[in-house]
Amino acid sequence: MKQHSPIFFWLLLAPFALWLILLVIIPHFDMLGIALREQTAPRQYAFSFKNFSEFFTEPLYWRTFMRTAVMSIMATALTLLIAFPVSYYIAKMLRGRPKSFLFLLCLIPFWVSELVRTYGWMILLRETGVISNGLQWAGLVSGPVELLYNDAAIMVGLVYTSMLFMVVPLVTVLESLDDDIIEASYDLGGNMWTTMRNIVIPHAMPGIVSGCIIVFMMTLGNYLTPNLLGGKDSLWFTEQIYTQFITRFNWELGSAFGILLLLLSSLIVWLGLKLSKQTLTSTMAS
Amino acid sequence: MKDSVIDLETRNVNKHYGDFTAVDNVSLQIEKGSFFSILGPSGCGKTTLLRMIAGFDEPDSGDIFIQGNSMLGVPANKRPANMVFQHLALFPMMSVAENVAYGLKQRKVAPAEITKLVNNALESVDLGDSGKKKITQLSGGQKQRIAIARCLVLEPKLLLLDEPLGALDLKLREHMKVELKQMQSRIGTTFIYITHDQSEALVMSNKVAVMNNGAFEQVGTPSDLYYHPETSFVAGFVGDANKWKSKVSQVNNKSCSTQVSNGATLRGKINGTMPIAVGDEVDVFVRPEAIKIIKTGDNANENDNSLECKVIDLLFNGANSAALLEDITTGKELHVALPQTGEYIGLQTGQKLTIAWSPDQTHCFNSRVKG
Fold first, then answer.
1. CA nearest A123: which of A147, A154, A151?
2. Integer Cα distance of B297 and A8 in angstroms
3. Which residue, among A264, A245, A262, has the nearest Cα to A253 in the 3D structure?
């Protein structure tokens, strides 16, 4: 290949570098700075770990934090569990037109905004909603049932919102698996389960991990869905951050929470990569 | 060879995809320990037939027996037949040894036993020290051998091979042909090999079935197919041949005289199952090596077919050299083999010459497709 002048490389890199520096790196350093200070007098600030120690001494904060993490992991696992068979069906069982149709069907809900989709779930699940009315009409329940404002409703909303972001990498990675290889496994005596475990899942691992990373990050940082479907008691960590910044004007604590959320998601993604023996590069290449 | 033991039998097997008949009423018997090839152009249904034997497709009608047991409704993972895939289908997520061990693991063989069998299998294909390697570290020929070892370690009754040499380069393909043939005679497993390459089929097989449009045209030994083709298709597909469309002018017992339009009279043997009568359209075949070039001064044997030709091109290819000639009266192109014995060294493009060949080497088939 012909050696181009390095200026082309830097020109190509420039928009991305600007985006990274201006919108990601500088704000984070600024946030870290704000998180590590304490107001001693009006307009007087001093270096301090007070914001972080407050997080660990106030049970509401770190319980919300842990709850958000655990629920996000559960939502990710659930999304994977539902998306895998769907993706396998789209990628391996279907051909031609039905395949593109089904893939499009997964995409269509994402043509409307998350807000509208979440309101959709509220119309279904609320006390006077479609499901409640349907159950009453069928005579299965005697009075209205409230299906909103609980953890299950949050979970349903999160899984629904994340589905496409799991299906796309899974379909891509499964399509790259030759049918021959699956048939060879059967030919050598494998059954459906051993083929899944030994052939399909190891092959799909980069897609599974990249799907999980995206879904986990999206879920952990989601604000709208837990708030609308979970109501006042949803206790999602992003709501705590919002409260500190907007309601309490406590930017210091809010920043500390933001930093902690970043550390948490990095830690869990790192653990996930370690456990699945994948590297970030191999995952992103899939 | 032990006769009487039949490893594979298919009875009137049919397979349709919509209106398309992929496999048309195929019946065959394959003796234990033989190397059986199914030869045909792409799209002739040979892969479909093989997939039905392996258990990936079910026939629409008919039955398949492996050592006398009907395989209808038996899934691929329960059949005593293993397949070497066209692109080998080695498992890239596993090491070489794990690939070979895969089938044994599915059978729940004890781990110590698996290690032993896998080592033996790797030794038998001369890859004893490659067990820990990744699949991507192997060369084309080594992958081939692993794909075969992976099947043979399970001691199948049948080994099915789906054009496995197709992806190799010419030199390696020639080498693997010989290696496969020797491997088969050493281990004695019945091999069923499908290919569109006639040289692969002829070199390796005990018996070859020539398949066209979903049906078998002829089943026989390689030399049978070459010297005694039963159909026009076999005569044209197996080996090289010059072909004329001609009209029968005279029939005597087993031979006939035919008239090529605006051209020569060609005499030949009547072949095939379709009878030939005066006035029928026939396909006339003659092999390039059956044609002699008559030196100036010599006269052709008066019973021989002979043509006046012009040399268009000389195709030098060592022992397989040939001359491309043009029939002066009809302009038809002909291939004539040129043995490199020095006899034809003076041949030049544009030169006019006479060629001749015996009617015994000339095969005539009724052009109407049978059935």
1. A147
2. 77
3. A245
Pick the residue from chain A with its C-alpha nearest to B154. Answer: A188
Model pLDDT, residue B371? 39
Cβ atoms within 10 Å, residue A26: 11
Closest residue by Cα to residue B99 from A56, A86, A80, A190: A190
Question: Which of B298, B299, B249, B315 has its CA nearest to residue B277?
Answer: B249
**Ranges of residues in chain B whose predicted pLDDT is under 70:** 1-4, 297, 300, 369-371
CB contact under 8 A, A178 and B151: no
Q: Which residues of A237-273 are buried (b: 16+ CB within 10 A; e: fewer)?
A: bbbbbbebbeeeebbbbbbbbbbbbeebbeebbeebb
Q: Which two tokens stand for residue B10?
A: 């298919």
Question: Per-residue b/e over B134-156, b at no fewer than 16 CB within 10 Å?
Answer: ebeebeebbbbbbbbbbbbbbeb
CA distances in angstroms from B104 to A146, A196, B24, B292, listed in the order given: 55, 17, 36, 58
Q: Which residues of A touch B85 (CB under 8 A)?
A: 180, 183-184
| CA A159 – CA A121 distance, rounded (Å) | 12
Closest CA to A258 of A31, A69, A55: A31
ipTM: 0.81
Of A183, A188, A202, the CB nearest to B150: A188
**How many Cβ atoms from other residues are within 10 Å of residue B202's Cβ?**
19
Q: Are strands B35-39 and B190-195 parallel, antiparallel or unpaired?
A: parallel
Cβ contact B291:B355 at 8 Å: yes
Residue B108: partners with Cβ closer than 8 Å, 6 or more residues away: none
State the amino acid at position B103 in one-letter form.
Answer: G
- Tens digits of residue pLDDT in A54-102: 888 989 898 999 999 999 999 999 999 999 999 999 999 888 899 989 8
For the residues of A167-196, what is the DSSP string, one character each? Answer: HHHHHHHHHTS-HHHHHHHHHTT--HHHHI
pLDDT on residue B297 = 67
Partner residue opposite B103 with nearest CB, options A188, A191, A202: A188
- The pTM for the full model equals 0.81
- Give the distance from residue A173's alpha carbon to the nearest chain B alpha carbon, in angstroms: 14
Question: A9 at the B interface (CB within 8 A)?
Answer: no
The neighbour count for residue A198, using CB atoms within 10 Å, is 19
Q: Compute and round to an integer the Cα radius of gyration of chain A.
A: 23
β-sheet with B61-66: strand ranges across: B20-31, B6-17, B61-66, B69-70
> CB B89 to CB A191 under 8 A?
no
Q: Check if the beta carbon of residue B91 is closer than 8 Å to that of residue B99.
A: yes
Q: What is the DSSP secondary-structure string of B222-247?
A: HHHHHHS--SHHHHHHSS--EEEEEE
- The SS3 of residue B312 is strand
Q: How far apart are CA B171 and CA B108, in angstroms?
A: 40
pLDDT at residue A283 tops 80: no
Span A11-21, mean pLDDT? 90
Q: Which helix (H) or strand (E) holds B335?
A: strand B333-337
